[in-house]
């Protein structure tokens, strides 16, 4: 169970509090693209990442959806749009707060790789 601050003391969160926290997290991070965008930016932290580059490199995302998702992530303090000397190029970077999501994306990547391998093994066994 998770911990919550109650006054000046930490206590175990109730099931209801945990479910609310999960709902809050899913509201902020949910959808097809937000975690992928955060992972993309975290993996390229030392690079200048501009909008058009993201649009090209994140396969399947449209400019309209990328704009919406980046605005949501910026509103929730997970990404920032630093000032640019070139007004045509819009740069984005992951914030320190956004980096706190990295363990979640790391777990999802690990689970996804394991799941993909398990399915591949099951399909191979069925084909025999």
UniProtKB/TrEMBL annotation:
The record's keywords, sorted A to Z, are:
DNA-binding, Transcription, Transcription regulation
Task: Offer one Pfam family short name for this entry.
Answer: HxlR
Q: Which domain of life is it from?
A: Bacteria
Limits of the HTH hxlR-type domain: 15-120
Is the keyword Cell cycle in the record?
no
Q: Can you provide one Gene Ontology molecular function annotated for this UniProt record?
A: DNA binding
Q: InterPro entries, alphabetically?
A: HTH_HxlR, WH-like_DNA-bd_sf, WH_DNA-bd_sf
How is this protein named in the record? Helix-turn-helix transcriptional regulator
């Amino acid at each position: 169970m998770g911990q919550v601050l109650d006054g000046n003391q930490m206590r175990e969160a109730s099931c209801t509090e945990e479910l609310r926290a999960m709902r809050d997290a899913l509201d902020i991070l949910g959808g097809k693209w937000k975690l992928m965008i955060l992972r993309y930016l975290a993996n390229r932290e030392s690079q200048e990442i501009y909008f058009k580059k993201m649009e090209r490199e994140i396969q399947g995302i449209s400019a309209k959806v990328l704009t919406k998702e980046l605005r949501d992530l910026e509103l929730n303090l997970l990404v920032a749009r630093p000032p640019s000397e070139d007004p045509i190029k819009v740069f984005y970077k992951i914030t320190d707060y956004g980096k706190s999501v990295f363990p979640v994306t790391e777990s999802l990547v690990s689970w996804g790789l394991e799941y993909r391998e398990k399915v591949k093994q099951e399909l191979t066994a069925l084909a025999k």
